[in-house]
Inverse folding.
C-alpha cells in the first residue's frame, strides 16, 4: 500500500464565522506504483486533498498513511523532511523559482531531501525530459511546456514513492498536454512511484486505467472549496 | 545547494535594490574605517612609540609650538638656542645622545623643510624599534643631503639629484647660492622625516645668507644666560670681539666659518639613559624650566594634550555619526527585505512545498540580510581605505600627518561582528514573516 486515507475530515472557517466542510473521506487508497486520476469540479476540494496528503495542510481528523507512515501525526519538521524525500509535487502553475535555472530548480528539490544536491542526477533528469540544452535557462527563458518538464524533473529528483500532480496540463497547450502526461507516467513507472493526478477535465484521464471521481467518495455536508 | 547560495540567488534576482542597500551599508562602514584609520595614525604619531628621543629642548616659549616645529615640522621655530648650550647638554651624565637641529629654510622645489643635523640623528632610528633605512650613503660633505621618501617622490629626486634652498623667515624669496646633492634617500617612515631634507649642521652654517644678526644674537645670548651673569658676560665679550673684527673687514665679505659662539640652534633632541629614562626626563625638564634657559618637553605630552582637547571630541563625533549612518543602513536593509516579502511569499511557499522546513526559510532570509551587510562591509572597508588614500595628500599638506591608507587597523575587524549583529536584528522580522508563511494559501 502506497497511500491510504482513512476518516479524513476537513472544515474551513469562513470569514463570517460559519463552518465550510470541504472533505469527508472515509477511505481512499492507492497501491504501490498505481496511477490514479481523480476528477473533481473546481472548488471540489481537490487541492485541499493534495495538501493534506502532502502534509502541507493537516486534516481536522483522520489518518494519511504513506508507506505505512501516518503523515498527519508527524511533528512538522519530520513531516517536511518526509515530504521532501517521499513526495513529489507537480503544480498547475509549475511553481518554478524564477531566479533559478532549470538545473538549479531540480537541485533545489534535492537540497531539502537528502541534503545532497546530486548534479549528475539533476542533469540526467533534465536530459530525460529533453532539456539537456536548457540547463542554464531560467523559467522566463523557457516555453510553458519546457517549464512543466522542469517541474516534472524536479518532482522526481528524490525518487519519491508518491507523486501528486495538480492539474499539470491545465496551462499547457493541447500539443504538449499528451507529452507532459506521458512524461509523468513514464517517470513514475520507471521509479515505481505511485501517481495521484487531480483534474477537473476528464478528457486528460483517458490514458489512465483508474479514474475516480472525488464526489463519489467525498461527502462533506456543505459545499466544497 | 545550501541556504546561503539560495539567499545569494535571491539577492541577485533583486540586483538593483540589493546593490543600493549594500551601498548604504558600505557608506557607513567607509566612514567608520576612515575615522578609525585617521584616529589610529594620530594616536600613533602622538605616542612615544613613534619618537626615538625623550626630550626636545628649544628656546623659551610654547611647548606645543616647539614640538610642532622641531618634531612635526609644521610651525616655524619659536626662537634659538646658543650653540654652546649643546656642549652643556652633552656633558650631562644623564644624557646619552644629544642631537642638534637647525631649520627654517625650505627646498626651492616643493618647499620641503630643511633640517641641519648630525649623523647621530640617523643613529637614533626612525622610531625606538625601527632604524632608518637609507638607500645611498650617509651625509659626508657639507653640501650632501638625505631626503625623505615623500620629497623624493614629489620632486622626482633620486641619488645624485641637485637642488637649492630658499631662505626661511622674512626673506623667504631668497634662493641660496649653494647647490646641495642627494646622497641618500630614506625608506618611508610614516613620520615627518618623509617630508624632510636633511643636511649636515656644518653645511647649514656655511650657507651664505645665514650671516649673524649681531644685535639679535646678543639679545638671545643675554636672555638665555640671564641667570648665569658670569657666563653671559663672557659670551657677550666673545661676540662683541668678533663683531668688532668683522666690522673692520671690507664691505661685502661673507664669513662662512662662524665660531661656535655665533652659532644658534633651533632645537636639541635628547635621549636619556634607558635605565632611568622617566626620572631623567622629568628632572632635566624641570631643571631647564626652573633655570629660565629653555623649554624642555617630552614631545608626547603637549601633543597628547592637544589631541585630547581638540581631536578627541572630533573623533568621537565622527565615530558616532558613522554609527548612526550604519544604523540608518540597517533600517534600509530591513525596509528592502521586508518590502520584498509580499512578492516572495509564493517562492517561500514553493520551497516549503518541496520540503524546506520553516527554519530553513527563516535562515534563508536571515542569510540574505547577513550577506547584504557582509558585502556592504567589505565594500565599505575598500571605500574607507580608498577615502583615506584620496584624503591623505590633503591631510599631509594641511596638517603634516602622513597616513598610510592601506594600513589595516585591528579595530576594523569589529566591523564584521557589529554588522552581523545588525543583520540579524534587521533580518529577524522579515525572516519571521517567511517562517509564518501560509503555504497552502500562497501556492
Amino acid at each position: 500500500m502506497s497511500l491510504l486515507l482513512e476518516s479524513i475530515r476537513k472544515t474551513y472557517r469562513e470569514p463570517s464565522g460559519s463552518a465550510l466542510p470541504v472533505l469527508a473521506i472515509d477511505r481512499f487508497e492507492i497501491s504501490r506504483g498505481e496511477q490514479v486520476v481523480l476528477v473533481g469540479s473546481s472548488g471540489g476540494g481537490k487541492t485541499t486533498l493534495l495538501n493534506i496528503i502532502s502534509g502541507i495542510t493537516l486534516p481536522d481528523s483522520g489518518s494519511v498513511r504513506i508507506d505505512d507512515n501516518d503523515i498527519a501525526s508527524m511533528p512538522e519538521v519530520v513531516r517536511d523532511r518526509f515530504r521532501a524525500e517521499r513526495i513529489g509535487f507537480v503544480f498547475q502553475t509549475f511553481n518554478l523559482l524564477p531566479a533559478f535555472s532549470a538545473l538549479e530548480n531540480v537541485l533545489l528539490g534535492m537540497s531539502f531531501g537528502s541534503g545532497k544536491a546530486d548534479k549528475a542526477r539533476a542533469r540526467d533528469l533534465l536530459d530525460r525530459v529533453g532539456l539537456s540544452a536548457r540547463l542554464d535557462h531560467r523559467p522566463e527563458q523557457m516555453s510553458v511546456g519546457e517549464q512543466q518538464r522542469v517541474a516534472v524533473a524536479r518532482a522526481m529528483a528524490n525518487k519519491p514513492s508518491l507523486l501528486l500532480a495538480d492539474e499539470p496540463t491545465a496551462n499547457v497547450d493541447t500539443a504538449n498536454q499528451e507529452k507532459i502526461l506521458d512524461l509523468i507516467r513514464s517517470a513514475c513507472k520507471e521509479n515505481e512511484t505511485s501517481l495521484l493526478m487531480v483534474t477537473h477535465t476528464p478528457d486528460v484521464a483517458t490514458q489512465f486505467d483508474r479514474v475516480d471521481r472525488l464526489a463519489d467518495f467525498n461527502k462533506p455536508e456543505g459545499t466544497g472549496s | 545547494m545550501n541556504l546561503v547560495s539560495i539567499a545569494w540567488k535571491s539577492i541577485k534576482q533583486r540586483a538593483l535594490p540589493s546593490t543600493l542597500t549594500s551601498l548604504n551599508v558600505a557608506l557607513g562602514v567607509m566612514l567608520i574605517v576612515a575615522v578609525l584609520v585617521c584616529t589610529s595614525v594620530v594616536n600613533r604619531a602622538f605616542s612615544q612609540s613613534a619618537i626615538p628621543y625623550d626630550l626636545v629642548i628649544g628656546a623659551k616659549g610654547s611647548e606645543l609650538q616647539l614640538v610642532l616645529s622641531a618634531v612635526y615640522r609644521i610651525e616655524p621655530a619659536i626662537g634659538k638656542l646658543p650653540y654652546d648650550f649643546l656642549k652643556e647638554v652633552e656633558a650631562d651624565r644623564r644624557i646619552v645622545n644629544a642631537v642638534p637641529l637647525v631649520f627654517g629654510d625650505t627646498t626651492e622645489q616643493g618647499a620641503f623643510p630643511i633640517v641641519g643635523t648630525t649623523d647621530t640623528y640617523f643613529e637614533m632610528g626612525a622610531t625606538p624599534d625601527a632604524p632608518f633605512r637609507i638607500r645611498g650613503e650617509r651625509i659626508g660633505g657639507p653640501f650632501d643631503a638625505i631626503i625623505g621618501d615623500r620629497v623624493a617622490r614629489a620632486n622626482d629626486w633620486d641619488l645624485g639629484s641637485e637642488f637649492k634652498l630658499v631662505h626661511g623667515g622674512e626673506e623667504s624669496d631668497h634662493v641660496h647660492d649653494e647647490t646641495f646633492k642627494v646622497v641618500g634617500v630614506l625608506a618611508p617612515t610614516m613620520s615627518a622625516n618623509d617630508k624632510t631634507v636633511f643636511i649636515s649642521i656644518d653645511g647649514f652654517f656655511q650657507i651664505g645668507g645665514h650671516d649673524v644678526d649681531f644685535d639679535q644674537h646678543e639679545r638671545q645670548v643675554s636672555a638665555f644666560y640671564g641667570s648665569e651673569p658670569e657666563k653671559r658676560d663672557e659670551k657677550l665679550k666673545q661676540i662683541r670681539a668678533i663683531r668688532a673684527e668683522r666690522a673692520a673687514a671690507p664691505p661685502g665679505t661673507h664669513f662662512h666659518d662662524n665660531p661656535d659662539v655665533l652659532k644658534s640652534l633651533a632645537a636639541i633632541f635628547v635621549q636619556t639613559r634607558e635605565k632611568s629614562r622617566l626620572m631623567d626626563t622629568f628632572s632635566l625638564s624641570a631643571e631647564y624650566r626652573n633655570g629660565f634657559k629653555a623649554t624642555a618637553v617630552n614631545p608626547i605630552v603637549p601633543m597628547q594634550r592637544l589631541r585630547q582637547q581638540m581631536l578627541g571630541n572630533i573623533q568621537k563625533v565622527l565615530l558616532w555619526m558613522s554609527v548612526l549612518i550604519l544604523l540608518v543602513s540597517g533600517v534600509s536593509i530591513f525596509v528592502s527585505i521586508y518590502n520584498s516579502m509580499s512578492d516572495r511569499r509564493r517562492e517561500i511557499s514553493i520551497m516549503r512545498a518541496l520540503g524546506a522546513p520553516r527554519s530553513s526559510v527563516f535562515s534563508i532570509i536571515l542569510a540574505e540580510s547577513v550577506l547584504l551587510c557582509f558585502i556592504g562591509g567589505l565594500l565599505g572597508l575598500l571605500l574607507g581605505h580608498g577615502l583615506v588614500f584620496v584624503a591623505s595628500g590633503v591631510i599631509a599638506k594641511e596638517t603634516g600627518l602622513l597616513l598610510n591608507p592601506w594600513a589595516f587597523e585591528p579595530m576594523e575587524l569589529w566591523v564584521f561582528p557589529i554588522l552581523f549583529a545588525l543583520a540579524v536584528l534587521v533580518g529577524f522580522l522579515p525572516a519571521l514573516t517567511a517562517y509564518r508563511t501560509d503555504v497552502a494559501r500562497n501556492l
